[in-house]
């Protein structure tokens, strides 16, 4: 590549942009395909300190992001699902997992680029199955990520001949504090320590960054990465912010301490690798291993210090966490303009969707860990759904007093229908599923491991479909609507398989299967009914485009 310095920087910026996009593509693909499964496994294994570290490591490798794990664990700790100390250890493991991903991506993986792109594109385009399409997305993302690293190397090649680069490198080598802070800012802008370390390792491999400067930059990357989660949760409940703040204390303060020690003793970095690129990546791994080892005995202390920093005086009752001041979008002044009024009603229905999603997420948690306060909190959410449902119906009734176009009349009916279905979903959760929860608690019942896996997997599918249904309500996207109705059919098949497995356990006389049989089957039935109600939200969209027969989805 030839041309001016600006052309070189444009090519380099494009390569970095592709790397950030590919990293996010892999992360979102994993979240969509396996997110709920990974969350359940993380939650189930965090009671043991060592398992907490390993779970955090595995989840960070899967999600390509330690920040995502920090946010997830923080939400668990805030909800009381896991202890704060275990959460700190899981985050320490996540940092190790993130560093391992960085190391793997520094190997020569050129051959994987065409293989991942071909396989991923084929899987994404050749099937309508959501899980296969997400795997295809992941493969394409991996291919683009490796390709972006090659592009960064090629784009930075002309910089080796630049007369300005040695001046810049010499300056930062003589001013490690500025270099440290600059790396932190870049990492915060990237929102990814993996991307930042890979960029620096690639530039070091081209001789543009010295190993000593690279170590300083890596320490800055870790400071910047530790700031991301606290910034993203700054508006969240105090209990949720404790784990991210704890990570900032350990990793952020640790990076500052290590910088001071490095500047004071100026150790030879040759022992951590044979090339500048290896030394940078290995320094990143070594730093996080040191922080992990220091964090094992300090997890409880750091958590208590984090609590004080966010002024968490005492654990809040779940019901208090749900008392959020809310404003209604149903502006009476807009009733004379149907288009504006329908937009207001849509906003309010979206809020109902959000509340129903919270209810659907929390009900399965109550099957595993419930008390009277949590049950009352969930029931209070249903009261909120009922109140909003009644308000939206009354508002839309007032809208229909004005002349409406055909499209506006159809939208009005669609919103009313969606409200009715959402209200029914809330009723099923509170009047049916909460009853099962109470029965399980009162009789001290426990599901078999196989039965619980079946229930949680079935619930995860319903929750994923619920999110699709809410998206369809807002976007009117026909492809998502088709996918939602197809998933309804697949869920019906899964229900049959789950029921058959359950009856086989009953036949074999498994004691816990016998004790929990009614709860198990009734829960599956309730979840199936919820899924059917939510899937029907897609029908008006499909009917509008002629994609729905009287009794089934048309082939397309």
Largest sheet: none
Q: What form results from the Cα inertia axes?
A: globular
Rounded to an integer, what's the Rg over CA atoms? 27 Å
What order do the helices and strands follow?
A: HHHHHHHHHHHHHHHHHHHHH
Overall number of strands = 0
Residue share in helix: over 70%
Strand content: under 5%
What is the number of helices? 21
- Average pLDDT for all residues: 82
**Poorly predicted runs of 5 or more residues:** 312-325
- N- to C-terminal separation? 46 Å
Structural class: mainly alpha
Structure description:
The chain has 556 residues and is mostly helical. 80% of the residues lie in helices and 0% in strands. It is built from 21 helices and no strands. Helix 11 (238-265) crosses helix 12 and helix 17 runs parallel beside helix 20 (517-535). The longest helix has 41 residues, at 5-45. The radius of gyration is 27 Å and the shape is globular.
């Amino acid at each position: 590549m030839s041309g001016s310095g600006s052309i070189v920087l444009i090519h380099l910026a494009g390569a970095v942009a592709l790397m950030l996009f590919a990293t996010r593509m892999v992360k979102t693909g994993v979240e969509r395909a396996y997110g709920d499964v990974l969350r359940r496994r993380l939650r189930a294994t965090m009671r043991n300190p060592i398992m907490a570290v390993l779970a955090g490591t595995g989840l960070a490798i899967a999600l390509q992001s330690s920040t995502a794990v920090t946010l997830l664990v923080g939400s668990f700790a805030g909800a009381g699902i896991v202890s704060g100390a275990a959460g700190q250890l899981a985050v320490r493991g996540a940092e190790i997992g993130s560093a391992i991903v960085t190391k793997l991506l520094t190997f020569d993986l050129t051959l994987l680029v065409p293989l991942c792109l071909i396989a991923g594109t084929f899987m994404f385009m050749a099937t309508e199955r959501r899980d296969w399409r997400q795997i295809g997305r992941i493969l394409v993302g991996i291919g683009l990520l490796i390709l972006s690293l090659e592009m960064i190397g090629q784009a930075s090649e002309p910089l080796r001949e630049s007369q300005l680069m040695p001046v810049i490198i010499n300056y930062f080598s003589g001013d490690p504090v500025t270099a440290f802070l600059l790396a932190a800012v870049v990492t915060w802008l990237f929102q990814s320590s993996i991307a930042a370390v890979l960029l620096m390792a690639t530039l070091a491999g081209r001789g543009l960054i010295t190993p000593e400067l690279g170590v300083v930059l890596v320490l800055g990357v870790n400071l910047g990465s530790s700031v991301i989660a606290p910034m993203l949760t700054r508006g969240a409940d105090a209990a949720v912010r404790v784990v991210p703040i704890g990570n900032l204390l350990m990793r952020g303060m640790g990076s500052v301490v290590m910088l001071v020690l490095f500047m004071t003793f100026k150790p030879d970095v040759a022992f951590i690798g044979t090339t500048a690129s290896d030394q940078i990546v290995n320094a990143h791994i070594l730093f996080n291993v040191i922080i992990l080892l220091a964090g094992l005995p300090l997890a409880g202390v750091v958590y208590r210090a984090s609590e004080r920093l966010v002024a968490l005086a005492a654990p809040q009752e779940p019901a208090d966490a749900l008392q959020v001041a809310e404003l209604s979008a149903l502006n009476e002044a807009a009733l004379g303009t149907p288009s504006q009024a329908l937009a207001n009603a849509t906003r309010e229905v979206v809020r109902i969707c959000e509340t129903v999603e919270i209810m659907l997420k929390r009900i399965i948690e109550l099957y595993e860990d419930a008390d009277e306060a949590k049950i009352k909190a969930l029931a209070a959410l249903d009261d909120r759904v009922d109140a909003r449902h009644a308000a939206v119906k009354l508002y839309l009734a007032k809208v229909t007093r004005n002349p409406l176009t055909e499209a506006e009349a159809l939208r009005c009916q669609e919103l009313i229908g969606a409200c009715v279905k959402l209200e029914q979903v809330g009723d099923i959760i509170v009047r049916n599923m909460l009853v099962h929860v109470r029965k399980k608690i009162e009789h001290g019942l426990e599901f078999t491991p196989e039965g619980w896996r079946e229930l949680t997997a079935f619930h995860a599918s319903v929750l994923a479909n619920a999110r699709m249904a809410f998206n369809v309500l807002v976007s009117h996207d026909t492809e998502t609507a088709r996918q939602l109705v197809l998933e309804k059919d697949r869920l019906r098949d899964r229900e049959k398989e789950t029921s058959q497995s359950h009856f086989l356990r009953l036949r074999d006389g498994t004691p816990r299967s016998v004790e929990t049989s009614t709860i198990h089957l009734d829960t599956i039935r309730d979840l199936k009914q919820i899924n059917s109600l939510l899937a029907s939200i897609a029908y008006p969209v499909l009917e509008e485009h002629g994609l729905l027969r009287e009794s089934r989805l048309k082939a397309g």
